[in-house]
Design goal:
- The complex is a heterodimer of chains A (292) and B (274).
- Chain A is mainly α and 292 residues long.
- Chain A has a domain of 167 residues: Orthogonal Bundle (MetI-like fold), CATH 1.10.3720.10.
- Helices cover 71% and strands 0% of the residues of chain A.
- Chain A is built from 13 helices and no strands.
- In chain A, helix 2 crosses helix 13 and helix 12 packs antiparallel against helix 13.
- Chain B has 274 residues and is mainly alpha-helical.
- Chain B has two domains: 32 residues; 214 residues, MetI-like fold, CATH 1.10.3720.10.
- The chains are: A mainly alpha (292), B mainly alpha (274).
- At the A-B interface, helix 1, helix 2, helix 5, helix 6 and helix 8 of A face helix 1, helix 4, helix 5, helix 6 and helix 7 of B.
Chain lengths: 292, 274
């Protein structure tokens, strides 16, 4: 019997059709509607060419939103990576309670982003949040700030929350990567008299390079897609100082500016699709190697 | 030398526990505030309550809306998880076994769905046209469409390690079509199925965006959406909000404790192995 008789393509179809109709097709449709004036007010949709895109790139407020989003994606990626790696290096050692500690550091990953946003709204509260209270308690009251009401600080605070939430995820991926370092390599390095730093650079780093790559890719992707934590924390405020693309899309959707909002969605889709090509390459290469 | 290593480990352990407070304190704050009275919880702090008000929980749980939304969440999460597992397992089986040009293209499109964002606005339109907007069925189908890429990816990686000879043996024994997959192969995929179950259930339970765009009727809201509503309604009653947060977190924390192994293996799948 031929493979296409046992492995019928009809078995792929239910999953693919569902995925196509509710995911791919809307994205393609969105590319079309981004060239129209589709909105909640009027019945007929009119083709208006690049007008929505011209409006987006000519609007300094939207460019600041892009800036916020890029700032968020870059800083969360780096900090989640650095803290995740430090946690992984320590919790890869023979500590007695390392399993409990790993579990605690991963815990925030499973909590709803809405809860995280609302709780940190209270922690960062300028008047009675526990962060400012704590700073006053240890005599650093002068460092107390309006963490989420100061337009200059609010993006930094949002980054801090994401690092709090997802450094543990980076840790878990690094821990898995660290298992691939052969113990003999460390011994060989010890005999050669290498110090801890040289050991890290010469032995550990080459082996965890794939984990670094995938962590950074996943971090950038989730950073560009961010919505719910910031939505719950500030809803983009004060003013528009913590607004990110997904929040703008949601707001424009609420105002009924569908054509304009789908132009923003399309830009986000294209940016992430470019990144996803490198992700697909990464996985496909792995798949090929696993097949050998 | 050994002694020094032990000392280093001990001090690192102490340091780690101190750092873990950063994670634990915000969570402790929710717990503490869930048993305070309204006045004490108006400011969310780490002060101990003067007396414990466990009736906050009975007040939250006696609210019909909370009970209903709890079961709504359960329905949405269980429905989409089961549907995702069945459809993705079957698709990944064929894609992995028959790597024709067409199938490789389909797999790449699934991988694109792993990263690309959903266009919520046009999806709303499509669901309106299909007449499934604002229904449980529609929401379950949408979650399934969103979870399929990652679940296909998980299964695809694992099925490669299941010997092809099993398919042939099953055929000789008279198994046909879907029977080969569901009776012979699917039971062998249990580790991935558990991972997919834990991960998708968790993602659906915690999701906040789909109801925001797709479920306008408050009767159909899940726990997370209701909590958001609680927050705006009882804006200064942090005791009730906190109690509802705890009610929301109990199922997922249990899932985390019992399914931790599967959760972690799912999240690291493909990232480092291979």
């Amino acid at each position: 019997m031929k493979p296409n008789q046992i492995y019928s393509k009809w078995f792929v179809m239910p999953a693919f059709l569902l995925f196509f109709i509710l995911f791919l097709m809307p994205s393609i449709l969105g590319m079309y509607t981004s060239f129209t004036n589709w909105n909640a007010m009027s019945e007929n949709m009119r083709f208006i060419g690049l007008t929505n895109y011209v409006k987006i790139f000519g609007d300094s407020a939207i460019l600041r939103v892009f800036g916020n989003n890029i700032y968020y994606a870059v800083w969360t990626s780096l900090l989640k990576g650095v803290f995740g790696l430090l946690l992984a290096l320590v919790l890869n050692r023979a500590l007695k309670t390392r399993n409990v500690l790993r579990m605690i550091f991963f815990l925030p990953m499973i909590i709803s982003n809405l809860i995280v946003g609302l709780v940190f709204q209270q922690i960062f509260h300028p008047a009675h949040g526990i962060l400012n209270e704590f700073l006053k308690l240890i005599g650093l009251g002068s460092l107390a700030r309006g963490w989420i009401i100061d337009p200059g600080l609010v993006m930094g605070s949002s980054v801090a929350i994401e690092v709090w939430k997802a450094a543990g995820f980076n840790m878990v991926i690094f821990l898995a990567g660290l298992q691939s370092v052969p113990a003999e390599m460390y011994e060989a390095c010890d005999i050669d008299g290498g110090n801890a730093w040289r050991q890290f650079v010469n032995v550990t780093l080459p082996f965890i390079l794939p984990s670094i790559v995938i962590n950074m890719l996943l971090n950038i992707i989730s950073g560009l897609k961010v919505f719910d934590v910031i939505f719950a924390l500030t809803n983009g405020g004060p003013g528009r100082s913590s607004e990110v693309i997904s929040i703008t899309i949601f707001n424009e959707f609420s105002y009924g500016n569908y054509g304009y909002a789908t132009a923003l969605s399309t830009l986000l889709f294209l940016a992430l699709s470019l990144i996803s090509i490198s992700v697909i390459r990464f996985y496909m290469r792995k798949g090929e190697r696993a097949m050998e | 030398m050994k002694r020094r290593a032990r000392m280093t480990n001990l001090s690192l352990e102490i340091l780690m526990w101190l750092i873990s407070l950063l994670i634990l304190i915000p969570l402790a704050m929710i717990l503490l505030n869930s048993v305070k009275n309204v006045k004490e919880s108006a400011i969310m702090s780490l002060k101990l309550p003067t007396e414990f008000h466990f009736e906050n929980f009975s007040q939250v749980l006696s609210d019909d809306k909370v009970v209903r939304s709890f079961f709504n969440s359960l329905l949405l999460s269980a429905g989409s998880t089961v549907l995702t597992i069945v459809l993705s397992g079957l698709a990944a089986y064929v894609l992995s076994r028959n790597r024709s040009k067409g199938n490789r293209l389909l797999y790449m499109l699934f991988l694109l769905g792993l990263v690309a964002p959903l266009n919520y606005i046009t999806t709303v339109k499509v669901m309106q046209l299909l007449g499934i907007i604002n229904t449980f069925g529609g929401a379950i189908l949408l979650y399934t469409a969103l979870f399929i890429p990652f679940t296909v990816f998980l299964y695809y990686g694992f099925i490669g390690s299941v010997p092809r000879e099993l398919d042939e043996a099953a055929m000789i024994d008279g198994c046909r079509g879907l029977g080969i997959f569901f009776r012979i192969i699917f039971p062998l995929l249990k580790p991935v199925t558990m991972t997919a179950l834990v991960l998708n259930f968790l993602n659906c339970w915690n999701d906040f965006i789909i109801p925001l765009y797709f479920l306008n009727s408050s009767r159909k809201w899940g726990m997370v959406m209701l909590m958001y509503n609680y927050f705006s309604r009882y804006v200064s009653s942090w005791n009730l909000v906190s109690a509802s947060m705890i009610v929301n977190m109990v199922p997922i924390v249990l899932l985390y404790i019992f399914g931790q192994k599967y959760l972690i293996s799912g999240m690291t799948a493909g990232a480092v192995k291979g």
